[in-house]
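All the exercises in this workshop are built on plain-text protein records. A record pairs a protein's sequence with a compact description of its fold. Read left to right, the backbone structure tokens trace the chain's path through space. Once this layout is familiar, the rest of the handout is easier to follow. Here is such a record, shown just as it appears in the course material:
>
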Amino acid sequence: MMLKDVKDIELFARGKRGVISVGTLKGKRVSIKTKRPDSEAEGRIENEACYLKLLNRHGIGPKLLMFGEGSLVYEFVEGEFILDYLDHANIEKARKVILDVFDQMYILDSLGINKEEMHHPLKHILVNDDKPVLLDFERCHPSKKPKNVTQFVQFITRDKIIVGLGLRKPKDLLDLLNAYKKKYDEPSFQAIRNGLGLER
């Protein structure tokens, strides 16, 4: 496959550093991401392609289809941004989505990858048919102290969100987070979820 094989390309959205277009490839809708001409950020598209290729093996992110000529092409993801979804989803479905995101955050932490912005992921998570898909990996970087799980905890413990999910904010939450950051292991990760009331 080559970029020239993508047909009917049209502008979809503009971000701080990139431009998203949509098109058709072999009868399926795809997204094409390129660098904004006025962006001073270097290597972001290449970085995102690298991490998408890796994370796709772990079931994270939209499927990367090709990369080249300063553009990356991945499967188009339908859905709602996370807050829009939580506004109308029932508690059972909403909790399953949150648990799914938590699992993806833990995989990222286990791989030593920091995604960034997960404390405010309003446009970084799309929910399609009750399945969350992470977006935007251009700022990913390796880290010995990744913060994906802890940042996502900051997000869901905001008053409106935690109440809507019927969760609780444990008094020892800070201790639970600190314990997790020392080991990044499954028991300490599970302790955070249990403390929030997100038991499986």
Notes: Strands lie at 7-14, 18-25, 28-35, 64-68, 71-75, 80-81, 113-114, 125-128, 131-134, 141-142. The mean pLDDT is 91.
